Amino acid sequence: MVETRKGVSPVIATVILVAVAITISVAVAYWMGGVSSSYTKFEKVEINPAVCVYVEGTAPYWNVTFTVKNTGTQQANIIQVYLNNIEVDGYSTSIPEPKKAVCSINPSGLLLQSGSTGNIYILIRAPNSSGGGGYRTLSSGTTVNIRLHSANGMDYTKMFELT
């Protein structure tokens, strides 16, 4: 009696096993990449150096312009602005005559998508000759600390000099 064995040769079986293993490992890698990216989103706002202009008149003030950029992977919403750890008096998209300091962002905040930039304009009322006005201790050459606070609880600080 002659035995006839039929089956897959060991070489073919090895090739099939390696192909299946590679396919499963690629699928798991894509799945893990998708899962981990949803947990690694973050916001990061960079504040570029300020442009500061002194505007003279009956109510002199400094017009300070900041360009901010979100370099994180999640959107950022700047909701509060502080000067020397004191929140600015008001937020408005139209800049009125400042009492102390007014910021250009609207009350709902400055929304920055990932990779986008935006401008923040701050008017700081200078003390006038009669002693009235805004921040009484500020003068040209003074270094001021700005702090931006986001809706996610992050704070971003930058120092600039009044000119």
Indicate the topology.
Layout: H1 10-39, E1 45-47, E2 51-55, E3 61-70, E4 76-83, E5 86-87, E6 90-91, E7 101-103, E8 110-112, E9 117-125, E10 143-150, E11 155-161
Parallel strand pairs: 6-7
Antiparallel strand pairs: 1-3, 2-3, 3-9, 4-5, 4-8, 4-10, 7-9, 10-11
Describe what this molecule looks like in 3D.
The chain is an alpha+beta fold and 163 residues long. It has two domains: 8-40; 45-161, Immunoglobulin-like. 18% of the residues lie in helices and 37% in strands. It is built from one helix and eleven strands; from the N terminus they run αβββββββββββ. It has one helix at residues 10-39, and strands spanning 45-47, 51-55, 61-70, 76-83, 86-87, 90-91, 101-103, 110-112, 117-125, 143-150, 155-161. The strands form two sheets. Strands 1, 2, 3, 6, 7 and 9 form a six-stranded mixed sheet that branches. Strands 4, 5, 8, 10 and 11 form a five-stranded antiparallel sheet that branches. A hairpin with a 4-residue loop joins strand 10 (143-150) and strand 11 (155-161). The N and C termini lie far apart (106 Å).
